[in-house]
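Dear colleague,

Thank you for sharing your sequence with our group. We've completed the structure prediction you requested, and as agreed, I am returning the results in plain text so they can be pasted directly into your records. Please verify that the sequence below matches your submission; if there's any discrepancy, let me know and we will rerun it promptly.
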Amino acid sequence: MVDDILGETVESNRIYTASSSSSSSSPDNNNKTQQKHNMSSSAASNQRLFIDASTTAPQSASTNNTNNNNTSPQQQQQQEGDTPTSARTQNTSLYADDDSAVSSEVTDDGTNSDPEVPILTRMEVVREEEVLPRNRREWCIVLLAILCILLIAAGVGVGVYFLVRHLTNDDDTDKSVPPPPVVTMSPTGSPTSMPTNGTLPQPMPGLPSDLGGAIQLHVLQQGISNLLSFGEPPDNTTDDIIGTDENTNNDSDEGSKTPQELAIDFLVSKDTLPVEVLDAKNDEGNTDDVFGSTNDKDVLVTRPYLTIDTPAYRVAQRYAALVLYYGTNGNEWLSNNRWLEPGVHECDWVGVTCELVEIPSISLKDALVDPTDLPTTTDSSNMDVTMERMITSIDLPKNNLQGNIPQELVALPYIERLGLWSNELTGQIPNTIGKLSRLSSILLDDNDLSGSIPHELGDLNELTTLFLGLNKDITGRIPNSIHNLFKLQKLGLNDLSLSGPIPKKFGQLSNLTWLDLSKNELSNTLPNELSKVTSLQTLLVNDNELSGSIPESYGERLVNLMRLEVHGNDLTGSVDSSLCELTTSGSLETLVATDCGSNEGGGSMNTISCDCCTSCV
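Please find the predicted structure tokens below.
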């Protein structure tokens, strides 16, 4: 049965093909159209045949084909015409459930000239058209889609990269967590963050509006004070923060506060005057910055002597002078007249000398905005200036100063003389003194200072007098940087504990008249280079560990020498005749040597033969 059906189906396909070929020559257009329609329907039905069905009954198909070949064309046409359309439809519907594509059984014997008869199956053509774009527009759409995908992938990749980098940085930061910042609260509640690692803080969006917080931040930003000078950070409270309670006078807590904290407390809480007095002094008539204003006429309204609108250099100057007072136990000074009197200019304090000079007019408030752009006092060509009284000298000798020399003296850029000799100062000489470029005299002798001589002193190009003697705890070597002090005239480094040789570069100090290196532990020989300092009048090198002999060039070139003391060393030889001539016809008034062997008629091994010495020790 199946074989019969398959045979009839194939035969029908052949008959429809032959019919299409014969009908193509008919002049009747309607019949031609109908035949094409029937051929298309037959071809579509044949494409739905089972592949298995075509292979299971090859014998039946060949038998039917043989029979059909023996039939005449007229009989084939008769059979085709007798076959109803419904039968053909029913015949093909038997295989409607099959999705396989079978190639057409139509054979091309050269007689089929209709171009609409496909050689390949429709399914294969459709698949080729679905795989590849058919025109330029579709190609552009495909390329645009690929580009969008690549851009999205690149964006995702960049986002992932920065996310991973951010997370990595957070992990690295967590490994070395910095100390918590010190937060200064202003009356308006605006905090300022200050790092505890010693670095200078950067300007914050919420700068302090109170005077105490502004001063503290300013001196930290400019390196005038360091953060450790303000003690330990408070524990989750703001009661003890500098400048929080501006009208509170906590005298009982002064013993536990640092000199820097006490200085700010004074400027904020004690250094106040009635508003009327300040307005009369400043002749401004502006009371906008009044602290503690009230409508009660019986209450005296006051405000700080300095405000955040005061020039920054003036505020820093008063702060530095106060740190000196509190840091050297000022209440025990023998004379502290007018110090700590509210509203009294620091230039009127005892021991302080000032001059009216031009300073940068930038206010304390403006200096906090960009601390790195604070104008220097040495360059006034392109800045706004104002006239102020600035400290040029501090002389407090023999005044019972006790404690360390504060580094805050660096805030006195116009100072020229620092005279604190014959006190009880301790600690090291602060290296910040080397930044006071106008200093011409440093007089710190006869104290209890220790440490080494800071090499930063060699940066003081205006220095003419340097006396550090009588501080037995100062050790180390004489810094070579001192040879840069070309204006130096007097150098006193006596009664210290210095060791090593006398620097040969001392021969470059062409203006030196006084050199006292006595009572140290200096060794090696007397440098011949000292003979180049022809202006030298006093040379004291006694009581050291020097060896060798006195250079002959001393008598030949040091024609202005008035005093020479070389005793208490291991020197040998004899005093050159040129030096002796200076004692008789020259300027040499004092020549002191050890033992003076020839005068004593012999002497020991470590003696100097001197017939013209004025004294033998």
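Summary note from our side: The two ends are 153 Å apart (CA to CA).

Kind regards,
the structure core
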